[in-house]
Amino acid sequence: MPRFAYTVNAGNGERSTGVVEAASLDAARWALLGRGVKPERLQPASDADDDQIAGRGTRAFLFNPTTWRRIKSVHVELTLRQLEVMLRSGLTLLSSIETIIDQPPSRGVRAVYQQVRQRVESGIPFAEALSEHTCFPKSVTAMVGLGEASGNLEEVLLRCAETMESARRNRTAVLTALFYPSFTFLFAIGVSVYMVLAVIPPMKTALEALGRRLPAMTQSLIDVANFFTDYGAIILVVLLTLGLMLLGFWLWPPGRLALDRFQLRVPLVGTIVRCSGTALFSRLLSTLLNSGIPLVDSLRILTTIHRNRYFVQVVDDTRNLILQGGSLAAGIGKGKAYTPMMVRMVGVGETTGNLEETLLNVAEFHEERLQTLIKQLSAVLEPAIVLIVGLLVGYVYLAFFVALYGAV
Q1: Average pLDDT, whole number, for the chain?
Q2: In terms of pTM, does the model score above 0.85?
């Protein structure tokens, strides 16, 4: 959608700039007037306007105090909940922001809200001030903008915090399920490599000095150690080359799309990714539609939320299909990225006019299903990893003690 840069008088002799998306120049002007903003200048935005306004220019990047501070999602959720409670209690927006600055969850959050306060004091809408910081998702800034316009900012802030919390919990659950087995497997590999390369070779030298032959089990490990000693450098170069090629393929947009699509076909892992994406899509779309954001704009926001590029492509294709007169269910069902259950229920929701509630039910079901799948993944991975680690370490230690007793 076209972007238009505008300039407004902040009321204190200063001028502020911004960017708005609209179908035409007149539509952009009416959108700004709907926010209570009367632009002095309005024209098609250039790349320079985007960089200057969004704080992504070189100078802004280097000298922005929040550039080098990572703002955690949980801290953003906390501040949104704090704002909701204080606004509901009768405090003004500026007083609520001041309270967060006085008692922030981190230094980065304080720096962000200090800049937000300055922008709000200069007459810029709160949503636009938040949009200048990447720690606030586009879904949050869009919903906050509508909350300001409708006078229902407290409820919108609570919805934003709940949506971010749900997405964070699902993401954390998946990472936690994969962390323990991966750590255990890598630790076992490290111990085994140490035994093979650092412990058994000196024992071989001692046994050879005594004129004794190594047991077959121990000799097999020695052969492995010799192989890696002779060809280790070549193997390392090959692995690094393959890793760089894979990284380059991942950084190449069509390659990233292919890898993300292949991820959905991996047994169990693909099911978890599909279920997680479905839960995220349905909950966030339900929240955006309940907040009054049109379906086409909601789908545009959703393209910035998914990390899997294949989901992004499906959502973008769906948005284009709706602009051409198609339905949401037909669009999301084409790519087979989301679960068939959601596609069918969305079709029913569109027919009955109850799409928001239907999407919320879909989200709740898939979030529960995701927790079950994660438990199943742990139940499959942990015994498999324990078995592999046990066989690997057991073989190395058995070969060690067989050689040790042979030296006695």
Answers
A1: 79
A2: no
The arrangement of strands across the sheet holding 41-44 comes to 15-21, 3-9, 41-44
- pLDDT level of residue 69 (50, 70, 90 thresholds): low
- Reduced to 3 states, what is the DSSP secondary structure of residue 183? helix
Q: How far apart are CA 140 and CA 159, in angstroms?
A: 9
Helix (H/G/I), strand (E/B), else coil: 43? strand
User: What digits encode the pLDDT tens for the residues 202-238?
Assistant: 766 766 666 667 778 777 877 877 787 788 789 889 9
For residues 359 and 347, the answer to whether their CB atoms sit within 8 Å is: no
**Tell me, what's the pLDDT at 241?**
94
- Our CA dihedral for 79, 80, 85, 87, rounded to 10 degrees, sits at 110
In the prediction, which pLDDT does 58 show?
Answer: 36
Whether 112 contacts 135, CB under 8 Å: yes
Alpha carbon distances (Å) from 44 to 47, 95, 113, 134, 181? 10, 36, 29, 23, 52
- What is the rounded distance in angstroms from the CA atom of residue 249 to the CA atom of residue 330? 31
What is the DSSP track for 135-171?
TS-HHHHHHHHHHHHHT-HHHHHHHHHHHHHHHHHHH
DSSP E strands in 124-265: the ranges are none
- Residues forming a β-bridge with 350: none
Is residue 242 very low, low, confident or very high in pLDDT (cuts 50, 70, 90)? very high
How would you label 74-106 residue by residue, b for 16+ Cβ within 10 Å and e otherwise?
Answer: ebbbbbbbbbbebbeeeeebeebbbbbbeebbb
